[in-house]
Amino acid sequence: MKSRALPAEELPTRPDREVPRSRIYPWAVFALTFGLLLSDYMSRQVLNAVFPFLKAEWLLSDSQLASLTSVVALTVAVLTFPLSILADRWGRVRSLVLMATIWSLATVLCAIAGDYDQMLGARFLVGAGEAAYGSVGIAVVLSVFAPSVRATFGGAFMAGGSFGSTIGVALGGVIAVQFGWRWALAFMAAIGLVLIVLFRLVVTQRRLDRYQHEDEATAVDEPAANAGQRAPFSSLFSNASVCCVYLGSGLQMFVAAVLLVWTPSYLNRYHAMSPDTAGLVSAILVLLIGAGMIVCGVITDRASKRRPERKWTTAISYSAASALLLAIGFQLQASSLQLVVLGLGAFFSAGASGPATAMVANLTHSSLRASGFGALTLSNSLLGLAAGPFVVGILADGLGLLAALQLMPLVYIGAVTALLVGKRTYPAGLRRLAALNTHQPPA
Does pTM surpass 0.85? Predict the structure, then answer.
């Protein structure tokens, strides 16, 4: 394995001794990639703030409203995996720029839609543009930072979904009330187009290559990978432990997605808030989801620094805490106390996202890491972002929105079960990865 002569740029020396590297540039990459992720979710979730306007203007049912959100997540679920693979081959930077351009222009089409069918078609295009951005974007971000902070940066990057949703819902509600719902969508599209220009000017593949951590698999809690070796594609799903991560993460995202989508409508109907006030209050709740993802990621990195299996323990704890708090919260009468309890539940609702990102990285061969994140995004989108709002919308049509939200925390039973199984099979998963790294057939 050491017989191959490596080019000078691949030698295991410190690159900063040969080519000076700025400490600021990785943060600039994170900021711009994160900024586009904000735009991604602003364009996706702004529609939730204008649900009352669409319901009144087009006489839509709750299931139809939910479909306008779920079609985006479903499209992401279907396309994220193949587009992630294509991005690895075509170029990640060019792919990110193209994806952002597509979803921004599609948001313009949403703003000029004349009926439900046109809006549904435009939302499909939004999903097509956003499909692989999360998996490719996080691969870019993690490649320029040390492996020991995976849960922190994984949670922080994924929290962009909550922050973007917060901005989109809050700002969208205000703009819709003042100028009309179409202007709310148009404004989100404009923000995306501006960020595309900035990203393209600063981030290039050549610059990224200078800051790459050549072997992310040298983290203390996973075996070293062979440089240049490419693992079989099937290894993404043949490892039972990583499959448990996919399942557990997707199910915990089910609850977070429901809170993102249905909180404005819940506040409008049961707390008698106007659309703009409901948007602002729900924005605080969604902001707590993002803050929880970051804080829980930091806690996980510190707790698991010497005990890698604690990533599973923390993820399980976050899911259990959210389940209990949300179950209690939606049983309380509409009041300030209820909002506080729901806020605490929201804080932990997606706390397992950072640990899940770190565990996928630790259990996936370095040559397939972007595809591994694509599989995680697929699960989050299909089981969480697509299924959550739609299932609750269907239940709301028959039982009422409050009753549907009271049933929602039961999904955490599946998430905790999957994570418990994953923790039990984690050592075997690491052994399978070690077998791939040493060219040995897995046991």
Answer: no
